[in-house]
Amino acid sequence: MPGTVEVVQGRASGDYLPESVERVCSRASTHSPHTARRQFNELLVYYAPEAYAEASALWYSLAGRIEESQVSSVFYPEKFSVEKEVIEVFGDLKQFTGTTRLENTTRTYRITYQVRDGRFSLLSFKEKDNPTEEHQ
C-alpha cells in the first residue's frame, strides 16, 4: 500500500482500513471455479494466527464446493459500516453457473478484525444473516 499509515491505539489512519477491507472483500466474495482457490489462498494471508486454522479449513472446503458446482460469484460493495474491530459491508451479490444467473440478491458481510503491530489482522468474515458460517 503506497503512502504512510499511522497506527494509534490499534486504529489506522487514512485509507488503510478501507483499502484492507476492500481487498479482503474482493478475495472472499468475487470468484470463479478457476480463481476461487487462489483467491482464498490470498485471503488467508490476512487472517490472525489464532483464526487461521479454522478459516483455512472453511475456505478450502468452500473452494472445493465452488470447483465442483462450477458457480461464479461477484459482489459489488455499496456501503461500509465501521465500528471498533467490526466492519459490515453491504452490497449486491450475483451468482452464475456458466452464463445462467442463479442468484441476484443483496448481502451483508460482517468482518471482525484487529490492527496489530500496524497490520490488518482478519479474525472472521461471515454473512451477517448466518453468523455461524464463514462466507456462504
The secondary-structure class comes to alpha+beta
**Strand order in the largest sheet:** 3-4-5-6
- The separation of the N and C termini measures 29 Å
Give the total of beta strands. 6
Order of helices and strands: EEHHHEEEE
Helix count, DSSP H or I runs of 4 or more residues: 3
Helical coverage, percent range: 25-40%
Strand content: 35-45%
Low-confidence stretches: 1-6
Radius of gyration: 15 Å
Q: Give the overall average pLDDT.
A: 87
Shape by Cα distribution: globular
Main sheet attributes: strand count, strand direction, barrel closure: 4 strands, antiparallel
Descriptive account of the structure:
The chain is an alpha+beta fold. The chain contains three helices and six strands. The chain has helices spanning 16-29, 36-44, 49-69; strands at residues 7-8, 11-12, 71-83, 86-97, 100-116, 119-127. A four-stranded antiparallel β-sheet has the order 3-4-5-6, with helices on one face. It has a two-stranded antiparallel sheet with strand order 1-2. Helix 2 packs antiparallel against helix 3 (49-69). The two termini are 29 Å apart.
Brief summary of the model shown:
This protein is of the alpha+beta class.
Topology:
Elements (H helix, E strand, L loop, with lengths): L6 E2 L2 E2 L3 H14 L6 H9 L4 H21 L1 E13 L2 E12 L2 E17 L2 E9 L9
Antiparallel strand pairs: 1-2, 3-4, 4-5, 5-6
Helix pairs in contact: 1-2, 2-3
